[in-house]
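Propose amino acids for all 441 sites.
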């Protein structure tokens, strides 16, 4: 939903009715004989080109005894290939005036480059080299083992409240491939062999398991020829076996856990609900609801719990929508001297109020205006457009949705929002994680 817009600043919006007056984004798409899906979007407004390669592999595709592999490859893919020396990929791109990055999620692993227009062949060549020519050897693997373990320490193990996301996933999605976080287990990565890493690479890093998007200022004839030359010679692989979600069941009770965290400065509460998949028709109403409830200092939660009652120094929330399910969560950090149970009661009271009374027309209109501003803002960058195109094709099998999804948000009614609030928050089945600064706090 609104892919690639998380990094876009929200434009100032009032309460005037939102109208979907966005110029359609033009693109062409085709498949190579080996199954690689290609999407080309020309935009000559600036002399830059972005390439996005979306691999259909995320943490959900891992062996539960070998978690972290998808994220590990996000790092390993910047090591070396048969024709690219170790630790030079970033130098090749930056010396050409470009930038590069990647990310891993539950459902996907995505790599991107942004380069000047005259360098468009370079990222295509690098991506082709990485797709089937990656070197998986002791030097690269051992280097990245250390990098990944350090990342885990900084983001999870040594950070205040650092384990909440993993704990939440484990409880909400028990007995399913969504029950562990993409960062994975350091022990699993440590004990994995070179042969296991190679098997994972050969299973998922194949042309027919990838989407390639080129977005920006380029000559389509030149780009098509380069794609054919660099990627066309790869053989089509067997379709990878996908994990089963048969074990995923709706949460049937409330689960509570208290964690004594010496790194935390203030008590905090993390409340999670098993929510909607990105393919659920109600997800548009849910996203607008969460904008109303938790987005910024004018949101319902912030105004009530922080400003008016002064129970918390921070409240936040979001909905993470995945292909097969989702997680909607709320976070409250207690103000000094304020009881954490009062923060929980205040958050729960706000949820109950929207279940009982819904939201106002002004609140819904403001949320739609924010969404429209995001949608427009997300079409200004070559990378954000490329990312969106890849995701619409991957998950919806409908790349054209990039041009009409905004209408689905604007059609949401007050009744839709209230119905979704009841659907997500109405059962009381949830996970509540309480973090205390030290034992006995």
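Proposal:
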């Amino acid at each position: 939903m609104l892919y690639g817009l998380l990094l876009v600043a929200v434009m100032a919006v009032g309460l005037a009715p939102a109208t979907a007056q966005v110029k359609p984004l033009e693109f062409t798409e085709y498949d190579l004989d080996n199954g690689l899906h290609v999407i080309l979007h020309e935009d000559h407004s600036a002399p830059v080109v972005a390439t996005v390669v979306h691999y259909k592999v995320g943490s959900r595709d891992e062996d539960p005894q070998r978690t972290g592999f998808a994220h590990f490859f996000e790092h390993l893919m910047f090591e070396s290939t048969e024709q690219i020396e170790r630790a030079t990929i970033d130098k090749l791109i930056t010396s050409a005036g470009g930038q590069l990055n990647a990310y891993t999620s539950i459902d996907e692993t995505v790599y991107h480059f942004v380069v000047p227009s005259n360098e468009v062949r370079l990222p295509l060549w690098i991506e082709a080299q990485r797709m089937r020519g990656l070197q998986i050897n002791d030097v690269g693997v051992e280097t990245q083992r250390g990098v990944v373990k350090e990342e885990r320490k900084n983001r999870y193990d040594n950070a205040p409240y650092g384990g909440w996301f993993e704990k939440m996933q484990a409880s909400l999605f028990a007995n399913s491939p969504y029950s562990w976080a993409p960062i994975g287990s350091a022990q699993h990565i440590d004990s994995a062999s070179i042969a296991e890493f190679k098997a994972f690479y050969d299973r998922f890093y194949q042309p027919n398991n990838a989407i390639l998007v080129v977005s920006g200022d380029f000559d389509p004839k030149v780009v098509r020829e380069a794609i054919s030359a660099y990627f066309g010679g790869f053989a089509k692989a067997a379709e990878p076996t996908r994990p089963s979600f048969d074990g995923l069941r709706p949460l049937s009770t409330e689960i509570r856990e208290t964690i004594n965290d010496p790194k935390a400065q203030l008590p905090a509460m993390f409340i999670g609900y098993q929510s909607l998949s990105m393919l659920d028709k109600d997800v548009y109403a849910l996203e607008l609801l969460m904008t109303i409830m938790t987005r910024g200092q004018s949101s319902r939660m912030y105004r009530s719990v922080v400003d008016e009652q002064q129970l918390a120094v921070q409240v936040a929330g979001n909905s993470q929508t995945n292909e097969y399910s989702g997680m909607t969560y709320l976070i409250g950090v207690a103000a000094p001297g304020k009881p954490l149970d009062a923060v929980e009661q205040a958050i729960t009271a706000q949820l109950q109020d929207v279940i009982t009374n819904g939201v106002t027309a002004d609140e819904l209109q403001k949320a739609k205006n924010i969404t429209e501003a995001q949608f427009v803002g997300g079409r200004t960058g070559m990378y954000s457009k490329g990312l969106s195109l890849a995701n619409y094709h991957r998950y919806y099998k409908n790349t054209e949705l990039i041009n009409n999804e905004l209408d689905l948000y604007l059609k949401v009614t007050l009744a839709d929002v209230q119905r979704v609030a009841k659907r997500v928050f109405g059962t009381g089945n949830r996970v509540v994680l309480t973090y205390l600064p030290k034992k006995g706090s």
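Residues 138-157 form the longest helix (20 residues). The radius of gyration is 23 Å.
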